[in-house]
Request: fold
Amino acid sequence: MRIHSLTMTGIGPYAGREHIDFDAVGASGRFLLTGPTGSGKTTIIDAIVFALYGDVADSADSSKERIRSTLVGPHTESVIELVFSTGAGVYRVRRTPTYERAKRRGQGTTTQNGTVKLWHLAEVGGEPLDEPVTRVGDADAEIARAVGLSREQFTQTVVLPQGKFARFLRADSSERQHLLKDVFGTGIYDAIQDALIQASRDGARRVEQAAADLRGQVASLGRHPLLTEAPSPTDTADAGEETADADHVAVAPQDDSSQEAPSGGTQEALPLPMEDADREEPKEADDGPAPTPAQVLEAAMAGAAPDLVALRRVGVEVLEASRNRVALADARAEAAGTVLTRAQAARDEAQSLHDLLERRRALVEENERLAERAEQDTADTQRLRDAECASRVRPYLVAEQAARRRAQQAVTTLAARADQSCLAQLAEQAGVTSAGSAEDATGSDARSHDAEVTPTALVEPLVREAQHQLAALEDEPSEARTSAVEAVAPRDSEAAETSMADDASETAHAEALIPRNLDDLAHQYRREHGQLEALVDLEASLPVRESALQQREADLQRAAAQLEQRTEKLAERPAQRTALVEKLEAARAARERLDGLQDRRTRAEERHQAALAVEQFSAQFAQRDDACTQAAALARETAERVRATRLAWISGTAGALAGELTEGDPCPVCGSTTHPSPASADADGATRQQVEAAEERQKQADEALSGAVRERDACATRLEEAQRASDGMDAPAAKTALNESTTALATARAAADGVEELVERLEAFDAGTEQERTALDAARSAQESTRSRMEAERETLAQDQQRCLEARGTWPSVTARAAALLVRAKEAEDASEDVDTARTTLAQARSALADLAAALKEEGFTSAAQATAAFMERGAVEALSTTVRAAATARERVRMGLEDPQIAALSGQEEDRLEAVSAELARADAAARQAASLQARTAESHEHLRRAVDGVEQAATAYEEAAGSSADLIRVAALARGENEAGTPLATWVLQARFEEVLVFANERLSQMSSGRYELIRVAEETGQRRRRKGLGLAVVDHLGDERTRDPRTLSGGETFYVSLSLALALADVVSAESGGVSLETLFIDEGFGTLDADTLQTVMAEIDHLRAGGRTVGIVSHVAELRDQIAERIAVRRVASGGSTLRVTA
Reply:
């Protein structure tokens, strides 16, 4: 990877735009980045790291918020652009940090999120190959792919931050393990190690769970009754003998409870059958009882691992014993069922004989009872026959009486109709005569009316004829008519003559009551009424039409007045439009002034804010200036202390060395064997720790002074900007100007806001004027049309009034005349209908009387009274009929029952054995139930045993699978966890191997830098560490003298620097190789050279030259004067008066 250029704007102390062309400044292979302490050298490295990864180099000790410069205002954007190349191509990345920017509208600030853009270029300085990547996640992923290094790896290989590699040298094993893990990315091995451990734990849990399941299944099997007791000698009795005697056992009462084992668990345990090969010779009697199967199961589970063979053997043996018990119970149940079947057959035979004897006895008793009530049954039969005849005559009798009543009612209704018609005719004549007296032709009309034929005149003769026929019908009593029929019945010829005479008489009666004249009169009235119906509706509408016409004439007059008013208002609208146009022009003029007033108000507000800021920054500047003065005094004091302490330490060290000098021996410092002027020991000397402490305090004081100066300069800059922005106005004057501009703006805005409304009002006004003009024209046309229609309607109304006057004649109105005609027609129709009804009912009455006489004769009654006496209600007839049928049925049933061959074969002396046979059946049923219960419990017990044995087998199989599949995994996890000969976990072992590679590369450079004096070695743990060994300890072997091993923390500042640099460069080489051979062509080394003496500095620079010879460009970050003399290519950081910094590049 090579870095080509860097461009910064508003970054750290660099308020302006700064550009570095690394290709030009690093053409010789090395360049110097120099400048005062705290001026911003490290910021350049942070900018490179931030452009690539969105964070600073040393994120653990610094925040990426320092990327944003404090010297720029909220309107200035902070931007970093970096051009770099890798094996994947040339890239340009542009990244901005998150900062508070000024709002685009209004006052104050808002958070501007960080952004990134990544371009893939054709070449350095060339055009992009495609569209830029703008999503942060996508850009970060593409950069990581192109660079091939994480941020941690990048800061260990390309950018070596200030103090970072010295920290790695002095770290303990735990800290070094975390650093190496980040650099090499060996977290995957931790994940593998944790996954193996977790998988082994899961496997162990599965084995333990399978063992627990097996123990539970074995415990469940051990609780079965067949396994809990020792075998009894009687259990091996001959099963065949018991089966042979099963019939006798089943038939006999089963009162002995010892023959059945309850299901509660009192069955004896069965002996386990053994293979012939395993059968042992009989033991002595004093060997004790044989173990129960439950005890065998317990022994099989007692060891560290269950004895699966023993468990399975016990399961097979107890299942075989249980099957023998099931077979014995089945045989007993089958024998008991056979006995029960024979007992049921005997009981069925006895029950059949018992039922026949009982039936014969009942039939004999019932036959005797029927003989005693024979006479009563005969009388009931005769009564039932008479009642049935009377019920057939009853409808004729009822019909004759109903016909007679209908005839009487019809004749009475006809007479009432005649009386009503007479009264109505008199009233009509009086009304017509009164109305006709007011007319000119009253005499002729009255006479014509008197000569008319009325319904009353036609009805009266018909009423008299109907009354005559009714009177003749009532003079013929029913009984006399019946006697007459009986007297003439034997003579057929006379009967025929009588029938012909009756038909002729009936025809004469009917002809006398035909209302032909009434029907003709009603038709005439209906025809005249139909001719007047149209004029009736016309006459009824005349008043409404007259009133409506008058109302419309009044409406037409009002509409004419309104039309005149609307014409006057239309003439006023041009003046109103002129006033509206003038308002619109005034509003538009106010709007044109609005932008200028807005700018004036904005400028006034900015001046007011700046004036307020001047007051605030003036007070802050005074405070910052005081703080700078105090910080400068403290820095001078700490510098003087450092100088004094360093002189005291040098004096004390020289005295100590001089005290150990021996004449003739070489000096460890200069190598001379003569010591002419040895230093004297100073009692007031200082230690190295005191010197470092003083230097640390000086560094803190310098940093505090730099920070105070930056804050003062920044405050001064902001004060000058505020003074320029306020135009020299103080806060009260700026406030007054702001109020004035605000008032003017509000007034103009209020006037300008009505432009759109006035435009809409003007458009609406013009549209309304045109609409009103169109509406007036339409209204005038409609008014003329309405006046013409009204004149035509007035003429039509006069013609209709004349037609109605001619049509009513002598009547008050056409409606009255039509109503009178309708009433007369209705009277004639009603009278005709009443005559028809009277004629029909009279004929029906005569027919009903003849039908009744025929029915009495047919049923054998001499009179209607006799039939009425024999009649019975329906319920009584049904009850009597039921009684008669029941008596007849009973006699027939008894006769047929006694004639049944089975009953006829009995003598009545047979023996009834039902009770004895039922007792035998009950005993057989009890025995069968007991055997079936034993069979069911035995089968259930066997099923429970089988499920328990299956459960043990399944649990044993699961245990075998779990133990077999987890054994290798548990063993590998134990090795990865550190349970091995070296006691090293997997992740630590990997880091140790990487660390060994780093030390090989480091010692190559360290040998050159230290002239072969120092060598780095890996130790189990550093001196003084009591924590768990990690194998990442580091020691320095000093080959000068006795080659003793030293703690890296005992090295001096210069020694620490070049040892740390050797480690850092070696780490970069290993990481590059581990990252797929990433080519690292640019390297930055930040600080540390100030601790080296001149010779060591030259040695280190020679090693750096070796890196340059290998194709790398090395940038050295330092402010050491000797480096400035040696390296011409440099990037110089200079402070400016405003408090920030700027760059000067010398290529």
In short: The CA atoms of residues 228 and 294 lie 6 Å apart. The radius of gyration is 69 Å. Residues 516-592 form the longest helix (77 residues).
